[in-house]
Predict the 3D structure of the following.
Amino acid sequence: MGKMSAGAGVVALTCSMALLGAAPAFAETPDPRTYAPAADGLPVEGTASSADAPAIEAGNVYTDEISPGETLHYALALDSGSSAYVTTVAAPDRGSPVAFDDELRVELLTTGNESCSSGTADFDFGLGYLARPIAASAGRTVAQGAECQRAGSYLYTVTRTAGSDPEDWPIELRFSQEPTLAALPEAAPPAESWETEPPSPPTGQATRVRGGTGFNDAQPIGEGVWRDDIRAGESLVYRVPVDWGQQLALDLELGNATGGDESVSARGDVGLEIFNPAAVRVFPPGTEGYRGEQLSVSGIAPGVHYGNRFEDDIEAFGVAGWHYLMVTLGPEVGEITPDPIGLTLRLSLLGERQGGPSYESDPVEAGFGVSQDDIEQAADGLTDEEVAAQRASDDKRARGYLAIGAGAALGVGIGAWYLIGWRRAVSAAGPQP
């Protein structure tokens, strides 16, 4: 694949043969997993009639399903000062017979049927079509003179074309809203101010992680070297905290196939997709052919800046927060080997963290910012469950120390009380003969 301009809003990808470094021992990867739905997802039933559309609220994830050729309506309320994003994630079964005519279309509309924005997603994957999680987004950007700036009721529609897959698809609606701006932000810096060449990738011992199945269980990772395994037909998802002013650079390496028949001549594809914190895909999948020999794909994304949302091709790089990496290995690789393939990710973040726009409330709580806790979690490669367990352990330890301290203080107090009582008793008895 030839190099593409980062200034055009597309991650630059180059392919080269690269020998993988040693990685620590790890148990065999289990069979490919299916998409994990949001644990806190709220069931909702979109309607064919816009008059009966159920309401969805910002900050929630909703679950539904959609049939071929169906259009579903949902209602939402927007204020006059917050940018909002609604993303629909479709997750058909792995191996579903998707083709060029399977597509997801979304649109945000006023109740007067005026379009605010629209988006589409399909299963195009290099030279073919591959069933995997896809995301289509629509939203409203707050800006003077832009569309749909009034507060009030809006409609969000999800349409699935009547394609090759006859089965219903589970879908998730992710409704996120940025806090209201307290002041107008600066314009985006010139495109040439960003780095366009990937830096030398980080080296050293890799940390073992297990990629998630989608946005709900994406594995946190930060700068450094990360090691995983991927099977044919599998999609693995990771999330990286990228703050204002930073650029994400990465190297994706696949090791050589083992355990297969060397006489088999087959080719699969490995693809990389990147999504922003609102699960908006920022560029079509960068895909390379894999024939069982080690390969490396490198790339660098434009820097994150609020003003990017007003620039063509890089508008999705206009929000800070957790960005998602989806790595997919084509099912044809199963003809090369039944074993998992070694996967290494080498990540760098270029540029110093900068202050973001002036918001009236905490952007991190709304999912559009990076905290120090996020950075530390990513640096250690800890899942949310591991962070919660670690905090619970720390709290338990702190309570234990407090109890020990209180017990010691009580012991000292009892001893002092006993000593004072003994002295008073001796004094009352008078001098001994």
Notes: The chain has two helices and 22 strands. Confidence is low (pLDDT under 50) at residues 1-29. The helical segments are 372-380, 384-429.
